[in-house]
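Q: Two folds, back to back.
A: First:
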Amino acid sequence: MAPLIETNWKLFDEKKNVDFKQMNGWVSEDKSLINRLENNYGIINLEVLSEEETEFSDSELDFEKVKGNLRKVFLRAQTNVVYAESFFSSRVFKKFPKFKRLGREPLGKYLFDNPLISKKETYVAKYSLENKSYLGRKCIYDLDGEKFFVIEVFLFHE
């Protein structure tokens, strides 16, 4: 079961966002999430829930029924540690075909080594799963003029 979003996305500001303040370091992280998770939780396995072509609308990207690829995964140690979604429009995977079908490969493998990819904005929202609240971040990236997003819901509190 995937976590459910409870609030609207808000632009992240370390000084203003007081909910889950202890998670600010995770939200502002600009490196591979899996590497940091492995340092804290041991070996991380990537479980693909779905990866399919679909139409998607997104207000932060100003997308209205854009065709692309939506991928949903859990990053797991002994339990689920992070739930993640990523959406790449067809324009993005024309520029970087690997994003059309990542399978079990971690996205960070490609995200941080490509000089054409840059992070633009980070948003935060509250999510719930099994009656517990968690923090989610939504990072907007640019690949040579085309935008895509990555959502990660941290299923822990530090």
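A: Second:
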Amino acid sequence: MYSERDMLEVNFRIRRGWLVLIPVLAIFIAAFVFALVKRNHTLALVALPLLIVAFIYGFVAHLWPNLRYRRFLRDMADGLSRDVRGVIVNVAGEAELQDGAMVLPVRVQLTGADSAAQNGASALAERIQQLEAGEDTREERIVYLNASKRDLLPPVGRAVTLHCFGRHIRSVEEA
């Protein structure tokens, strides 16, 4: 799902953000220094807050989200992965922000072998008690799909193997 192109795009957005922000900040710094040299208090009182606001807005609104997303992509490429096998139950229609990326929550009903392997011995004993009591033992997980990769996910109802990094889907294989 993720490729080198994703990293190149986010690096381009970061570089473009700096190329816009630096000249704007340079103008306000020059105005502030000019005001200090000429002892123009009014210009200094206007230039300094504008400089601070421009830096904060430029960094928080444009650079920080891209820096977080680049860190997310690096983690996805280098981090440990685990496999989740099951059937896709639901894909949310509305994206939310998780770990610097806009994601869609995906509910996956685990297959029996996968759910027992992920839960360990104590959960297996609890599952046996639930079976004896006749309770519903279906187990679901919620994992997150990058909203820009929605078209790469198979439709609801398909059996899949999801390769995940943490809670995020790294790649998908249809079973």
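Q: And?
A: The longest strand covers residues 82-91.
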